[in-house]
Amino acid sequence: MIRGQRPLRVLVVAPSRYPLRQPHAGGLEATVWDRVRWLRSRGHQVTLCAAEGSDFLDDVPEFRLPAPEWTRPEHSSDTEYPRGYAEAVDAAFDAARDRLIADRHHFDVVDNHSLHPAPIRWSVEADIPVVTTLHTPPLEALLEAAAEVSEASHRFVAVSQATARAWSVEGVDAFVFPNGVDTDQWIRGAGGPSWVWSGRVVPEKAPHLAIEAAREADAHIVLAGRIGDVDYFEQEIVPRLGVHARYVGPLHQADLCRLVGSSAVALVTPMWEEPFGLVIAEALATGTPVAAFDIGGVSEVLAGMPGSATVMPGDIVALAKAAAHLAAEGVREPLTRVWTRQAAVRQHSLAHRHREVERVLTHVAQPAAARRVPAVSW
C-alpha cells in the first residue's frame, strides 16, 4: 500500500456474466481476478461482488450475483441471456446496494468493473466513492448512469487512449490506465514451430481470419479459448480445422502460458474496436512475437515493442506475411524473445499498472476536502 496510508477497504465489483476463476472466460475476468489477488497481497481488505462460482467469494451472500444457466450448452452466448437472467441480476444488484447502504461504514471505495449500470449509481445512492473502469466501447446503459453521477464522488478510468476517446465523445471523461499482466506467471518460453491464437471464440475476435492467415503462409496454428458463440464456432471454425489448424479449448493460465510461449508467433485478429487486447501483453511476456490487426487500442499495447507488427484489419495476406516474418526473425535471432520479454515486463507489468490504480483508489476514498489530483503516469 502507499506509504503512510492505512489499508483500503475495497468492494471490487466484477462483471456478472461469468465467474472469476480459471480458465478465465475472457480478458476482463482475468484482469479483475488479478486485481483482487494484487490488492489483497498489498494488505488491502477486499470484498468481492461477483457471479456464483467465483474464486475469492467469502461468506457474503448479498454480494453474490447469479450466473446464467443455459438449458442447452449450444444456446450459451456472450451477447444473449437466458430467460429471466437479466431480472435476477437486477435484483441481485439491488440487494447489494441495500447491503452497501446498511454497511457503508465497512467500505472506503468501490472498484467497479461491471458492465451493469447499477454500481455506477452507488456513488449517489450509497454515498460512497466509486472508481469505474471502462473495459468496452460505450454502452448505452452505462452512459445513462454516468450522466447521473458527479466527479466529486466518481472517477472513470479507461484501459486505453482509444477507449477513453470513444467515451469522451459520448460525454464521459476518463483517466487512462492500461491493463497489466502478471509477469511472474507469464514467463518466457522457448518458442516453437506452430503459430497461436488465444481469446474468446466469437465473431468480433475473428479467429477464423487467423486460420486463414496461417493457411496463406502454409503454417500450422493452434487456437485456445472459450467458445462464446456456438453457431460461429460451428460455421466458421470447425470447417477450417485440420492440416493448418487445431482447437484445444479453454486453458488454465499455466497451460496457456506454455502453449503461447512454445509458439513461433501469436496472431491477434479483432474486427471490432478492441479496447485493449490482454492476449497481446500475455504473448509478449512469454517472448512470443505478435502480429495483429491495427484497430482500437491494439497499437497502444504494441507501441515500442520489439517482436511486433500491425496490419490493416481484415488483411489476411498482410497478416500472414507479417507473422511469417516475425517467426523467421525469431529463428535467426533467438535473443529477440529475450528482448520482447524484457520490454513487456517494463511496459505491461501488473505491479506497475496496479500501483497507479492503487493511488487513484486511495485518492478517491479520501474525504472530498482532502482530495488532490493524484500523481499518476500513463
Strand and helix layout:
Blueprint: E1 9-13, H1 27-41, E2 45-51, E3 64-65, H2 85-102, E4 109-112, H3 118-125, E5 130-134, H4 140-146, E6 154-158, H5 161-169, E7 175-176, E8 195-198, H6 207-216, E9 221-224, H7 230-237, E10 245-247, H8 253-261, E11 265-268, H9 278-285, E12 290-293, H10 298-302, E13 308-311, H11 316-332, H12 335-348, H13 350-365
Parallel strand pairs: 1-2, 1-4, 2-3, 4-5, 5-6, 6-7, 8-9, 8-11, 9-10, 11-12, 12-13
Keywords: Glycosyltransferase, Transferase
InterPro entries: Glyco_trans_1, Glyco_trans_4-like_N
Pfam families: Glyco_transf_4, Glycos_transf_1
Give the helix/strand class: alpha/beta
CATH T-level fold name of the largest domain: Rossmann fold
Helices, by number, come to 13
Span from first to last CA?
Answer: 19 Å
Approximately what portion of the residues adopt beta-strand conformation?
5-15%
CATH homologous superfamily descriptor of the largest domain: Glycogen Phosphorylase B
Radius of gyration: 21 Å
Number of domains: 2
CATH architecture designation of the largest domain: 3-Layer(aba) Sandwich
Give a written overview of the molecule.
The chain is α/β, with parallel strands linked by helices and 378 residues long. It has 2 domains: 193 residues, Glycogen Phosphorylase B (Rossmann fold); 154 residues, Rossmann fold (3-Layer(aba) Sandwich), CATH 3.40.50. 38% of the residues lie in helices and 14% in strands. The chain contains 13 helices and 13 strands. Strands 3-2-1-4-5-6-7 form a 7-stranded parallel sheet, with helices on both faces. A 6-stranded parallel sheet has the order 10-9-8-11-12-13, sandwiched between helices. Helix 2 packs parallel to helix 3. The protein starts with 8 loop residues before the first strand and ends in a 13-residue tail after the last helix. It holds the Pfam family Glyco_transf_4. InterPro entries: Glyco_trans_1, Glyco_trans_4-like_N. It comes from Microbacterium testaceum.
